[in-house]
Design a protein that fits this description.
Elements: E1 2-6, H1 11-21, E2 28-30, E3 38-45, E4 49-58, E5 61-70, H2 76-92, H3 108-111, H4 113-117, H5 122-130, H6 145-158, E6 161-164, E7 172-179, E8 185-193, H7 201-220
Parallel strand pairs: 1-2, 1-3
Antiparallel strand pairs: 3-4, 4-5, 6-7, 7-8
Helix pairs in contact: 1-2, 5-6
């Protein structure tokens, strides 16, 4: 799999990520534009912003991503994170959303799909949800799209999502969004366990810790409120 760098020479950071994400694709660094499968990692340095872009083509599909970082905050570690996060986001565009309930007991609507839907229109959110296979794992599993859309709106308002026995009876989870430097939600952080109930003190303490962890990771990625 070819790799072309433009505007930067931080080959190590991008190469290591490419090898981790595409272990079955042989690495081939190049210095000239190419056609076919491969990745292009670019960095434009402006007076105010550093803008990173990534474009990855594999087996006929192309994923693209673009992120920015204030030049005043662009030390070496921050610039490396910018390049890696941009590459990772482009790589994730090549992957299909996970199947409903496939995340080892954590329902993707609450942890994965919610992150994908953040900032999208209700029509886009509904389209993505209707592509999922709605399996009724327990009597508590929510499979109605309208109800799920309302839950997603509730999650946006309170800043976190909870799952209460929808995959396995007695199993409960919490997730909170992680924002990147551009303010978009790309990831989530969460905890899952056999909490006594969603009203217990231990569950509310877990909510606080998950939200604090999400805020800390967001700040590390360059997000500022």
């Amino acid at each position: 799999m070819k790799l072309l760098l433009r505007g930067h020479d931080d080959r190590y950071a991008v190469e290591q990520l490419q090898l981790a994400l595409f272990p079955e694709e042989p690495m081939e660094p190049v210095t000239e534009p190419f056609s076919g499968d491969g990745a292009v990692s670019s960095l434009h340095t402006g007076a105010v912003w550093l803008t990173a872009t990534a474009e990855i083509t594999l087996h006929g599909k192309t994923g693209r991503a673009c992120r920015r970082l204030r030049a005043a905050e662009a030390d070496v570690p921050a610039r490396r994170r910018l390049l890696q996060n941009t590459y990772y986001e482009a790589a994730m565009c090549l992957r299909e959303p996970p199947a409903w309930g496939s995340l080892s007991g954590v329902r993707p609507t609450k942890l994965t799909t919610r992150a994908l839907l953040e900032g999208r229109t209700p029509a886009e959110a509904e389209k993505l949800l209707r592509r999922q296979s709605m399996t009724q794992f327990t009597p508590h599993t929510v499979t109605d799209v309208d109800a799920l859309l309302q839950e997603i709106e509730d999650c946006r308002r309170c800043g976190y999502a909870i799952e209460n026995g929808e995959y396995k009876i007695g199993l409960r989870s919490i997730s909170a969004p992680i924002r990147t430097v551009d303010g978009c939600v790309r990831y989530t952080v969460g905890v899952i366990g056999m909490f006594r109930s969603t009203r217990s003190d231990e569950f509310h303490a877990a909510i606080e810790r998950v939200c604090a962890a999400a805020a800390m990771i967001s700040a590390a990625l360059g997000y500022r409120e």
